[in-house]
Amino acid sequence: MENQENSFGRISKLHLEASVKDRRTILSDVSFTAPYKVMHPFYEKKGIMSVTMLAASAGIMAGDRQDLRIHVREGARMALTSQSYEKIHRMEKGYASRKTSIRVEDGAALFYTPLPTIPFQGSDYRNQLDAELSGDDSQFVLLEILTCGRAAHGERFLYRRFQNQVTVRQAGKIIYRDNTLYQPEWMDMSGFGMYEGYTHLGNLALFNTSRSEAWINEARRLLDETDGVEGGVTRTARGDVAVRALGKSAQRLSGSLEKMVEDCF
Fold first, then answer.
1. Where in the chain are the domains?
2. Which residues touch 181 (CB under 8 Å, ≥6 apart)?
């Protein structure tokens, strides 16, 4: 990712570590700097610890640099989401960036499902996510949704640049890589091969979750039968599952993809 000096001279950090204690997943280490905070964990599904990241700010501004580190130790199971939609504000110059480093150890699971991202007109955002899985029983689920911008304000695909690099490794070997780069000034984002008239793009990737062909068929049926949603489901070369879907509503699109994730718990 292109380097640029941080005009604010500091990096916003959030570091989380989940471990097992007395047969229960707990947050064993937490540290953060402004604007980040973390809600007290709660438990709803099959002993999975649910954690919500909070950001005491109006959104991401020009020059912001963020560093997220998530470590799920052996046997721990954590679901991590965000407090609200990620708003990427207008930038007269420069850009904002985030680097997320994830490690999931043997027998552990991480369900990472941040709320949708909204790139405002004139914004430039660069995101990099690197995940390392220890072995075949290290489960990782990633769900991300990117909107076209503030459609209600007439801001459809008016951002300058949006880049999202996702790399997943297992035992040091790359098993998944997605490098998304959108520059609406040079691309017909609404046209064929892009958003095709839709306003939201959802990506769901599931690693080491043993999704059956029946599950894949059900996921395809769910996409086909949800109004305003269109997408596909496929397997990677090593058998993991990737879902990519377009929608006209964040609620409907996220609802469909979240139903698929629920079956993984």
1. 12-262
2. 161, 162, 163
